[in-house]
Amino acid sequence: MNRLIKYTLTVVLTVAMSSCHIYRKYELPADENAFVEDYRKATEQPVDSTSLEYLGWEKVFTDPILQGYIRQALANNQDLDDARRNVEIAQAQLKGAKLSYFPSLALNPNGGSASYGGSHMNWSYSIPLAANWEIDVFGKILNRKRGAKVTLEQMEDYEQAVRSQIICGVANTYYALVLLKQQLDLTERTSVIWKDQVESMKAMKEAAYVNEAAVVQSAANYWSIMASIPDIRQSITATSNTMSTLLGTYPREWEVTSDLSFALPVNVKSGIPMSYLAVRPDVRAAERGLAAAYYVTNSARAAFYPTLSISAQGGFTNLLGSMITNPGKWFIQLAGQLAAPIFSRGQNIATLEAAKARQKQAMNAFEKTVLSASADVSDALAQIANIEDKKVALDQQIDNLEKSVEYTQELLTLDQKTTYLEVLTARSSLLSAQLSSLACWHTQVASLISLYQAVGGGR
Of 263, 239, 277, 247, which Cα lies nearest the Cα of 375? Predict the structure, then answer.
C-alpha cells in the first residue's frame, strides 16, 4: 500500500511540475535582437501624457474646419465601423471564454406511455435537470480565456490603427487642398501681373524701348501661366473627391483655411525613441498576436493532460428502473469522470508542433513590424529636419528674386543695358520659387502628419 501511495504521489508531482509552464502568463521572449529588449524596457516606462505619441488629435490639428471634417470621417467611415465590429466579436468571444468556468445546465423533460399484454396504458414521465462542470486542472480553459483577452486587445489595436489612418488621411488631403488653392491663387495673381507685363511691353515697343520679340515672348509666358490654371483646378476637383470619399459623402467642394501656420504642439525628440514605437497600434497588435500564439501553444500542451469533469442530474420522475410508481419521486445522481488521452493517432503532437511553428511566425512578424515602424519614424524625422533647411533657402531665394524683378524692371525702363529677357527670366524664376515654397510648406506639413501617424497618434 505504501509503495502504491508513493508511486501515485510521484506521478502526480511529475505531472504537476511538467505542466507548470501551462499556467504562466505571456512575457516577451528573450531574443538576440537588441531592439526587442529595448521595446520591452519601453513598455515598462511610465506614460508621459505630454509626449507626441499620447496627444489627442484635437490638440495636434487645431484648425476648426479640419476638426469638423475629421469628426465626420470618424462617424461615417466603413472601415472604422468594421474594426469596431471586430472588437465587439472579440468581446463576445472573451465573454464566452470566461463563462467556460461555470457548469453547463440543461433541462430535458420527457414522457411516454406503454401497454403490455392488453393492460391499460401506463404513463411515465421524467423532469431531469442535468449539470456538467469541467474542472480546469491543467489550464485548458485558462489559456483559452487569456488567448481571447489578448485577441480582444489586438482588435482594439487594429481599430486604433484604422482610426489613426483616417485622421491622418483626412489631414493630409485637407492640406493638399490648401496647397492647391494657394497655388491657384498665386498663379491667378501672377497671371494678372503678366498680363500687365504684356501691355507694358507693347507700350515700350511703341516708345522704341523693345522690339516685337519682347512683346510676343511676354505674351507666350502669360499664356503658359494661363494654361497651368485648368490643371490646378482639375487637381483641386480630384483631391476634393478624395476628401468626399474619406468623409463618406457625395463629391462636392470643400472649404479650407488660408492660414499656412501649422506646427506640432510639442518638440520632436531626436533619434528614434523606442517609446514612439511601443505605443504604435500596429506594433502593439503584432505583440498581441505573439501573445495569442503563445496561449494557443499552451492550449496544445494542455491537450496532453487529463480532463476532469463532474456531472450531476436531479429531478422528478415516476419511472424507477423498469417500474412505474405513482406518485413520482425526487432523484439525484452524481458522477465524476477523468479522461486522459492515450493514443490520438498523433493528432495532439501535430497540433503542438504546428502551434510552436505559428508562434515562431508571430515572433518574426512582430520583429518585422518593429523594424518597419522604426523606418517610418526615421523617414519622418529626417524629412522634418531636411525640409526646414530647404525652407530657409527658398525664403532667401524668393527675397532676392523679388528684388531682381524690381531692379531689372527699373533698369529696362531707364534704357540701361538690361534686356527684356532678363525681366522675363526674373519674373519666371520668382513664380517658380514661390510655387516651390508652397510645395515645401506642404511637404513640411505632410512630414509632421506622417510623424504623428508613425508614432501611433490619433487618440
Answer: 277
Q: How many CB atoms lie within 10 A of CB 66?
A: 21
Range of the domain at 236: 63-108+139-316+349-454
**Position 373 in a domain:** yes
pLDDT digit string (tens) for the chain, length 459 residues:
456 445 444 544 455 555 556 778 888 876 656 777 777 777 777 767 677 777 888 888 889 999 999 999 999 888 888 988 989 899 898 888 888 878 878 877 877 666 555 556 666 667 777 888 888 778 888 888 989 999 999 999 999 889 999 999 999 999 999 999 999 998 898 888 878 778 777 887 777 767 788 788 888 888 988 898 999 999 999 999 999 999 988 999 999 988 888 777 666 666 666 777 888 889 999 999 999 999 999 888 888 888 888 888 776 666 655 555 666 667 677 777 777 777 777 888 898 899 999 999 999 999 899 888 888 888 888 888 888 888 888 888 888 877 877 777 777 676 655 566 677 777 778 888 888 888 888 888 888 888 888 888 777
Q: Cα separation of 329 and 335, whole Å?
A: 20
Q: pTM of the entire structure?
A: 0.80
Q: How many domains does the chain have?
A: 1
Residue 332 belongs to a domain: no
Q: How far is CA 295 from CA 17, 20, 127, 211, 356, in A?
A: 18, 14, 41, 85, 10
Q: Is residue 295 part of a domain?
A: yes
**How many angstroms separate the CA atoms of 393 and 398, rounded?**
9
Shortest CA distance to 418 belongs to which of 401, 431, 428, 405? 405
Q: Is residue 185 part of a domain?
A: yes
CATH value at residue 436: 1.20.1600.10
